[in-house]
Amino acid sequence: MDADNESIVGRSIEDKSIEDEKIESENTKNERDSRRTRYIILVFIVFIILILILILFLYLIRSPLIFRSGAYSSVTTSTEKTRPAGSSGLSLENSYVFASPLRAKVGGEQIRITVYILNDRGLGISGKTVSLGGGPLQVSPIQPVTDNQGRATFDIASESAPGVYIIEAAVDGATLIQKATVTFD
């Protein structure tokens, strides 16, 4: 009878260990399924975030307000006041004078003056004749009529008068608001 009890106990222990293995394999399977579900959810969230970033990027590229030219002027009342008759689109506020170098020696060293004549949108206006004023300086017009970019070019020099000079540019009878300051030593 002890042998019978031992075999019954042995079987029940084997049955319990088989049940434990089944439960353990189910738990392992559930853990794998849970991990897989979390992984799928994480991938889905990352995918949604990437799509939102792409949409934002496309919106920013298409938005004209972000990439507007720095020379653009939306103030039309002041432009109208300073705009001479017959100069359609000319913006004295957007046009500018550039000097390089800013300092030169008296007696023949030259400074290049570049004038950009721009419209209300910051685009160059071609075919405009530009004149410079700068006191007793020698002005050599290189390209006094603006090109397609609105650029006119001059060289200036001082043969015998050292000092600081304010260079003014005029177009269509009106003086540009922006000026350049140069020094001859």
TrEMBL record:
Keyword Transmembrane belongs to the record: yes
Highest taxon of source: Bacteria
Transmembrane parts of this sequence: 39-61
InterPro entries: Ig-like_fold, Invasin/intimin_cell_adhesion
Keyword entries, A-Z: Membrane, Transmembrane, Transmembrane helix
SUPFAM superfamilies registered for this protein in UniProt: Invasin/intimin cell-adhesion fragments
Keyword Transmembrane helix on entry: yes
Name assigned to this protein: Big-1 domain-containing protein
Protein species of origin: Candidatus Woesebacteria bacterium RIFOXYD1_FULL_43_18
